[in-house]
Amino acid sequence: MSTTKSRSGRRLIAGTLTTVAVAAVGLLPLASMASAAPHGATDRGPKPTIVLEHGAFADGSSWDGVITDLRRDGYPVVAAANPLRGPASDAAALRSLITHIDGPVVLVGHSYGGSVISAAGAGNRQVKALVYVAAFLPAPGETALQLTNRYPGSTLPDALDPVPVTNADGTAGTELYIQQDRFRHQFAADVPARQAALMAAAQRPIAQAALEEKATVAAWREKPSWAVLTTEDLNIPVAVQRFMAQRAHARTTEVAASHSVAVSHPGLVADVIQEAALATR
Questions:
Q1: Displacement of CA 78 from its chain's centroid (Å)
Q2: Which terminus of the chain is less hemmed in, N or C, by CB atoms within 10 Å?
Q3: What is the CATH number of domain 2-279?
Q4: Beta bridge partners of 177
C-alpha cells in the first residue's frame, strides 16, 4: 500500500496512486475572471474553467469543499445544475453552459455525472481534460445500470426509494431517491452524521430511465482523463471503477472513501483536478 501526502501535509491517502495531484485550486464565477489569482500564485498562462457536474442523489453543494480549495489558486469554477433526466439531454444542458464560458474547460463528473461529461465533452475542442470522481466512464452502448452490475458489490438497489411520477409529456415514470435512514451508510459513510442527514434531506432524485439510457459517445476516447477511485464505495463497486478507468487509460488515484468522496476528501479531489488543469496549460 502506498500513501501520498498533499501539499498541506494534512492528508494521508490510502491506496495505490498511479498519479499524485499536486495542489489545491480556487473559485471564481467565470473564465473572464481567471486572471484574479491570489497574490503569489504561479501563473503559467490563463487557467481553464473547472466545470463540476454532480451526480444522482446530490446537488451542487456536494462540491462546496472542492470549490473552497479550488478558489485558493484562483481557478474559475462553475458547479453546474444537473437535471438528472438522461445522459443525452443532461449533456445538452451542460454543453449550453460550456458555450457561455470563455476559454478552455476541464470537465469534472461525480457518479452519474461521469456519463454526462463523457457525452458533453465529445468532439468539443473547448474541453481540454476530463476528471471522473467515483464516476461512470461508459462506452457507447453501455448504461450506468449495466456498468454498476458488471461486478458484484453495489448495495444501492436495496437502499432505493422509487417514486412513481407523471412526466411532462404525460407518460409514467419513476424517480429514484435513497431512503433517508439508509443514506449515510449507502452514500456517505465517511461524512459526519449531521452533514449526511442534511445531504439525505436535500438529495435530488434521478429518473430511473437515465440509468437505463445507452451512451452514444465517449469523450474519454479523445481527451486526457483522470479518475478518483473510491475503494469503500457501495454505489459503484471499486472493481467497476477500475475497469472503466483502465479501459480509458485514465490517470488514477485510489482512496479509501465512500461514494461521497468530494465531501469527505475535498482536498484530494481538488488536487486531482489541479493536476488535470495544469496539464492543459
A1: 13
A2: N
A3: 3.40.50.1820
A4: 161
